[in-house]
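yo, Concanavalin A-like lectin/glucanase superfamily is done. seq:
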Amino acid sequence: MNPRKHILFLLIFSSSLFFHPSMAYPRNVAFEFPFLPLQNFTLLGDSYLRNGVAGLTLESDVPASSAGTLIYTTPIRFSDNRTNSTASFTTRFSFSIVSLNPLSSVGDGLSFFISPENHTLGSPGGYLALVNSSKLTQNKFIAIEFDTRLDPYFNDPNENHIGLDINSLNSIKTSDCMSAGIDLRTGISFTTWIDYDNDRKNLQVFLTRSRSKPDYPILAMEIDLSSYFQEYMYLGFSGSTEGTTETHLIENWSFKSSGLKHFNPRINDPHNVTDNTVVKRPPVSDSGDFRKKIQFGLEVSGPVFLFAVLVFFGYISVKKWKSIRIEMNIKAEVTRRPREFSYRELKIATHGFHSSLIIGNGSFGTVYKAFLLTSGTTVAVKRSLRSHEAKTEFFSELSVIARLRHKNLVQLLGWCVEKGELLLVYELMPYGSIDKVLHQDPDHCGFLKWGNRYNIAIGLASALAYLHQECDKLVIHRDIKASEVLDAVDKRLNGEFDEVEGKRLLMVGLSCANPDSEMRPSMRRVLQILENEAEEMVVPPVKPMANFSTSLPMSLEDLVSSSSSDDEEAVEGNGSRETSDSTFEICIDASGK
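structure:
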């Protein structure tokens, strides 16, 4: 054989030994959360990781439907046909089920599951995100459910039980948690152990409020799971709600498998060399050919080995860098998320909601200037009226605006639902609203030059483009006030403005006020026009007549509700966003140039 081909064959053969498929994943495994990198988990639906805790469903004070799963990314080997062995396992985790709104109903629960696939998110509600409501028999899984709602469809015994589910949500066996003095819905932390012994064909579930394992299981069953195990399966948690504010948290988790026998390829694999095979020594040539082959092999394999080492360490470094960047992004996101304030803290910050600190009034409440002693910052506190409409507005504002992130939007810092009060905490705008800067005494507030005004228009367009087309839950701003409408050119500028920009701004305003919705530009197009990155819309010389589609009948009740619309309206997906319910007025200064 040619020496080069000989060395190449050795390299390929040795690499096949190191990367045999049977060695892709460990046989018996052990891991512990939260001491694992974030990339070790797959998140589906509404699940999230934050501060070392995994959440499975949405955090919302407003009743909603939610479903989410947390899956350990690496598949676990549970059976091996070559050694005819099946794994035993034990897992321990702590969890809590919390209702964020005491006035809301509870449900539906969470589960620990083992499944052959890791990409399907089930339906919310009683389906526990394990199965799809339209394909009940297709999902395969072994699960321990912690159910907080009585669902007769799945033959639930009560609204506070655990159960063993196999390929169906009709539990094989259930146990009332109150038999152990446990109410899953109290919001406190519980610890669970799930042990399966394959030799004894026995499954046990332990549940307690403490960190010590109880002497007796809350659920025990003689069952052989080997027929349900595939060679590789995934582990994880699922949780769901339907019209509730229940949230499901996994605080820690450890897993360990055992019992899989070691596979010896020299004995079991007929394609491998056996112990009885006679290996002949290579002939030694008097001319030193063999020594030359060895020397050539070292010369080739040395650089290859060094390159492999460099690639390996480079891969590890990049992976670690990505992990650090992900964690930094998550920490930054956590610091920006709204938090819950105590009523006492906000009462002190507003001097008992003193009238001297009122900086604004709206249709649903009063806004106070407040100083937070804990952080030393000045904020704005919106105190909602005690009415049904105000309560609806409060929860809508909290659930929608809390997710918005834009440099030109006032940031929601937190909330308080206590003592019958509904309070929202915002960043404070130290210079007040734009109408005060535009219309009050210039000596008191300062006078805005044309460049500042044009930049304000660009910033407004950028924020509206984000709300209308870029954020996850689209928002329509419909509360346009007369004080928020700018003159085309303020006569107090005395002609000191850019005529091209003035014309562009005027044409954009007229285009947006076109009664024909098909002729209005999107806010992204508006932003591009103002930044001179797109051509202006064609404005007709005569104002078009408004056209209303007969396919969309509008009742008197619709008109009344439209005229008294809220500040924001959330729109799912790509819903219609073209109708403005408020009067849009463009004022043209006759003396402007």
